[in-house]
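cache lookup: miss for this entity combination. No prior model stored, computing from scratch. Input as submitted by user K.M.:
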Amino acid sequence: MSSSDEEGSGEEYLFKIVIIGDSAVGKSNLLSRYARNEFNAHSKATIGVEFQTQSMEIDGKEVKAQIWDTAGQERFRAVTSAYYRGAVGALIVYDITRKTTFESVGRWLDELKTHSDTTLAMMLVGNKCDLEDIRAVSVEDGRSLAEAEGLFFMETSALDSTNVIKAFELVIQEIYNNVSRKVLNSDTYKAELSVNRVSLVNNGADGSKKTQGYFSCCSG
Amino acid sequence: MENKLEEDDDHEPGPVPPLRLDRFGFLKPEISPEGLTKSRSAFEYDREERRVRKWRKMIGVGGSDWKHYIRRKPHVVKRRIRKGIPDCLRGLVWQLISGSRDLLLMNPGVYEQLVIYETSASELDIIRDISRTFPSHVFFQQRHGPGQRSLYNVLKAYSVFDREVGYVQGMGFLAGLLLLYMSEEDAFWLLVALLKGAVHAPMEGLYQVGLPLVQQYLFQFDQLVKEHLPKLGEHFTQEMINPSMYASQWFITVFSYSFPFHLALRIWDVFLYEGVRIVFKVGVALLKYCHDDLIKLPFEKLIHALRNFPDNAMNPDTLLPLAYSIKVSRGLEETRQEYEKKNGKGGQLPGSEKQLE
């Protein structure tokens, strides 16, 4: 079944990613936009968990992302937090038109830290950036929270597709980088990763990383 | 005067919106599922007429004979309900078998009080989900229309009635389904009857903090699958599939979230009379029906298949008889004890013994 018969070129990767954030910020539509290029303005509230997979190619290798979309209402964390285990990437989503969803980001990060068992590639996602008229969270606020927490940051619109693929692919790429580093230098893996994150936060010494990390659809 | 003129006008009342709806009021998908669109034969029509007559006789005017009948011939009632309650009597019969009619009569004015004079901490959460509940049904489509207003009122009233439970996503599908068959106040009391356990085990544990009853039911369902379909259970274990990945919605919304509406209604007929056992039975029956396909699938395809059962598996006239043939009482009792032991609790869920009467 796997392509181990083809030496070297046929490597496969499978990464588990979770999408979390308050209710009605657009998690399910981000996922359906990414996995099926679909958007449903009248989608139902997610009950429990949903699941999609999507593949991309990195360095000639097939990388498959197994993405879990979770119910946002607080009450459901009792059953959804089980899905954080084994995740190597996370998108923490808020709605740029609702400040409360941005204020919850810290709690979602705590949840992740409590329940996940490995280092995660994490991205803060400000969704619904097509709704500029009723924006309630500035790009700057999003970006500085991401910097303070050592997260990637992007504003997206599942409605008009802005940055959706970029956001997912960046997370997947980062996971891939983490894993490659891990393979190359497994002893110092964690230390190195955290060093990386700090430099990303403080002074952006790693310039290429920084420009790669931040996208916003709405700031000039 | 003008109004009068309009009323007397013989013309068709305005242009009919070009919506293509199925017989339950849902927007039709491009390709209608088989069985819904088939026009009914004269034979079927006659049979339906005869059924309605029998039912009318059984319940009496406004339900006056119901209690008498059910005491004398419970097995007849059970058999008839399993064949499906006639759609035109569904709303009334649901209120009779769920015990909600009694609650309504015992609590005059309470609903109005809850809707008009009380405020709820969940109001914003409810509003956000209103347009995300049965979004393809004509009654709930119109923004701030009568359907959405009723749904809001019922959910808000419940969140005030039981502030500990408040509002939890999923409750909207219960309320929405009920509102298609009865008034707001009736729907509210039926919701109360279900969550507080007027006749069967209370459902409120599905919505309380920690979702304790969801966790218990998923554990029990997992065990039942292993008991009834050992090979498939083994396959699930190997593929690391567990019921929380596909069955939470089955319990939280009693199949009203994503199943074809005509099937959901038939399940609800039995659910209201026989209790949550039917949810387990239908779940196992679905897996049994699709057993030979499911057992070949790897993880991802398996999850997809478990969320998208084929049309033929969801035909109530084949699925429900299969479900009725599956015996779960003993299994449910044993797994409940096992679950309680595992979770080290003396304080079992209120009424959980009642469900297995």
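stored under new cache key. Chain A is about 40% helix and 25% strand.
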